[in-house]
Write a structure and sequence with these properties.
7-stranded mixed beta sheet; about 240 residues; Rossmann fold; globular
Length: about 240
């Protein structure tokens, strides 16, 4: 599938289908983009984001898949039942918790999971790495197939309305989305949108200060400041 890119949360750099599909190129992009000290900071950041916000959206006994898992920043910190991850980056396996099962594949192809086997699919800064809307549609259809009825997709990504030209600062960005375009895609492919936040987290951690985790926790509690700093959308949808 893919790998992901940077973002305040930004997991990893995810790309799977056409252009940046070569695992060796993905590895090179990711190693250049995330140095060791930045990777450590991102692990701390994601531990805080999961503990203070995203963990509340995931039942403790849920079966969860992290789509475009990168270095496992999200899925390694989730406390749930079974945990799966999907990414083309060959380095992903080196960073995942041993209890997380990795599917190293293109996410537009059939996932090696039974119908209705997942409770939650999480994805951060991943959809923008897909080559086109057909690839997104195929990915959403596989997501819907593998989720149980009422299962949840949690999607975070750069909102092109607010990121604008800075979106193209990353070589592996292709598909431009807003919260509304993603919501429409979801509703056309078996989902009901339950939550839609146009401005949630800042755009990227790349070339940004390493903020203290106390400040991150405070930011998550102060939703009234999100419109000032947020340039990523958050969309939560349920499979019909």
């Amino acid at each position: 599938m893919v790998t992901r890119h940077p973002d305040v949360c930004g997991h990893a750099t995810s790309y799977m289908s056409i252009s940046v599909k070569d695992p060796s190129e993905l590895r090179a992009i990711y190693e250049r983009r995330f140095k060791a000290e930045r990777t450590r900071y991102r692990q701390q950041l994601w531990a805080t984001l999961v503990e203070a916000y995203f963990g509340r959206l995931i039942p403790h006994d849920a079966t969860v898949l992290d789509l475009g898992c990168g270095y496992g920043e999200f899925i390694n910190h989730v406390r749930s039942g079974q945990r799966f991850a999907m990414d083309l980056n060959p380095q992903a396996a080196e960073h995942l918790d041993p209890a997380v099962k990795l599917f190293q594949q293109d996410c537009t192809h059939a996932w090696p999971l039974p119908d209705g086997s997942l409770d939650v699919v999480f994805t951060s800064n991943f959809f923008e790495h897909l080559p086109d809307k057909l690839a997104l549609k195929r990915t959403l259809l596989e997501t819907a197939r593998c989720l149980k009825p009422g299962g949840r997709l949690i999607a975070l990504g750069p909102n092109i309305k607010f990121v604008q030209g800075a979106y193209w600062d990353f070589w592996d960005h292709f598909l431009c989305l807003t919260e509304l375009s993603l919501a429409e895609a979801l509703e056309n492919n078996g989902f009901v949108v339950r939550r839609m936040i146009p401005r949630f987290l800042p755009y990227t951690t790349i070339h940004q200060p390493a903020y203290p985790m106390s400040l991150v926790r405070l930011y998550l509690k102060m939703s009234f400041v999100w419109p000032l700093f947020g340039r990523q959308f958050l969309v939560v949808a349920e499979r019909q």
